[in-house]
Design a protein that fits this description.
The complex is a heterodimer of chains A (about 325) and B (about 290).
Chain A: H1 2-31, H2 36-41, H3 47-56, H4 63-75, H5 89-124, H6 129-142, H7 146-160, H8 184-191, H9 194-231, H10 234-241, H11 246-283, H12 289-298, H13 302-330
Helix pairs in contact in A: 1-4, 1-13, 5-6, 5-9, 5-11, 6-9, 7-9, 7-11, 8-9, 9-11, 10-11, 11-12, 11-13, 12-13
Chain B: H1 2-8, H2 10-25, H3 27-44, H4 46-49, H5 81-117, H6 119-133, H7 137-148, H8 152-178, H9 182-189, H10 194-231, H11 242-249, H12 257-285
The chains are: A mainly alpha (about 325), B mainly alpha (about 290).
Chain lengths: ~325, ~290
Amino acid sequence: MRLLNYVLKRLLYSVPVLIGVTLLVFIISHAIPGDPARMMAGQKASREAVQNLRHSMGLDRPLPEQYLRYFVGLVQGDLGKSIRNQRPVLDDLRDFFPATFELTMVSMLFCIAVGLPLGVISALRRNRPIDHTTRVFSVVGVSMPVFWLGLMLLLLFYRDLGWLPGSGRLDVGLSPPPHVTGMYLVDTLVEGSEEKFVNCLLHILLPAFCLSYVYLAIITRIVRSAMISVMGLDYITTARANGIREAVVVLKHGLKNAMIPTVTITGLSIGELLGGAILTETIFDWPGMGKYVVDSVNFLDFPAIMGFTLVVSLIYVLLNLAVDVLYAFLDPQIRY
Amino acid sequence: MWSRFRREHQWQIRELLFTVKLLSRNASAVAGCLIIAAMVFLAVFASVLSPYDPIRISLAERLRPPSAVHLFGTDELGRDILSRIMYGARISLRIGMLVVLIAGGLGALTGAISGYVGQRLDNLIMRVMDVILSFPPLVLALALAAALGPDLNNAILAVAFVMIPKFARLVRGEALAVKERQFISAARAAGAKSLWIILHHILPNCLASVIVLATLVLGEAILIAASLSFIGLGAQPPTPEWGAMVSVGRKFLMDQWWYATFPGLFILTTVIGFNILGDALRDILDPRIRR
């Protein structure tokens, strides 16, 4: 019951934050540019067209009224129309979302599959060569310009070694699988085409590694320091003194308790991965939301940029919420 | 005058010397300092050190691979990439420092006010910071930079805005602790105004942690600003900004590998410098983990 209370409280608390997010995006899109109508109509629009747009969008109304209209529109799923193709931005984002989601999930998998063991090992072998190597690896990771890493990976694995494809989600000769989830890895399996599945997998490896490296570094660091502090606690000594096998001590007594900070950082990383996807997708020509927003920047397609910003931050806030709730389940001692 | 300064601040000077001593014994701190010093050296003496004019176009020498004449090769307009990278150090360091000054100044001040005044104002300020933190940093910086228009100074403002909550939260936390100490009550009893106390007592006491954070933010700011330039929202050509150079170099990646490789290597190295120095400073200045 107390847990339910906590979850409800946490849910209520995120409502003002969500409203704040819409307000900030509104301020950025309506109040900062000198002339939002000109921005939304595009640089080439005629003066009358801009004037008409200003009136039809209610940009000649006072700002609070504009915000109210904007908010009501949002609740109904109206993110405005893209300048480039005149389609509703929400439809565009919905089309591009699965590719980004797929990339993010595979990256996350990388992060956990590599970051977790690496962090544990370097905590257990503290100040040994493997620990130093891991530390160098993670300092380089958090300092890495993602877009540059992508280019270097392309040079090595695509140009020089020729092991992996350099762009897109599928070879040009192959037809995309029928749309089920929009995630090719799933859809090709549904279609039952092994060849296409392998092809998709090869295509996703480089971008997913590129996207995951920064967060891999962060997760490794967090797991390492969490493991070090947990392994120093008395009950670990007790467990060892009782003659429990070292593997059980490390995995059951140690790692399980080191999971709490790890879950937090993993949840936050998914949100950040969505940000990192902007650069990665551009480099690898991955047709997701990130590439969509960079293309929009080049066209000065303002509604598209703002729609993307809003959607990504909403996902980010909801992920935070999910992490906090999960946190409460994992650690019965924590209640706010 | 100097002796008076030394007498009045003898404890601060001792503390500073002690910190420097600890720093010099810390290998990664020394490495970080060396990297940063090298970059500052490049930036300050770019006009003396650079073998060529960074924006002089020489089509006869376009896209030359690295050689003794052009150590890092040339770009599509025949400009010397090494010279451009040296001038680029000026831009990147300026970006980092401006972001830290703006975000650190505004963030520390709002954080101190928030923590010292407390109550409703504190609640309001912290909720605003929560909202800013509800965006992935690059995404918010991108939206702001797009709204302000593609320009390096706008990108700096955008990155600075995104960084404000980091400083505000940190200083607020410290201010909450500092304001309970006796010298604050003493100052208040002596009739000092709130703003005076914030500026003369609260903020100086937060300085150590602000410096640590500033070092780490410097690296992050350079990284985000370079990303914005890469997308086309920061520095515009012909400015020799590292991110923008990688962006153009990308078009020539498959045949002229050196174009995108070297500027990116300098971004990475500079950011590593700030990050390892920042980590080492945190270990040294935070007495809780000082060993």
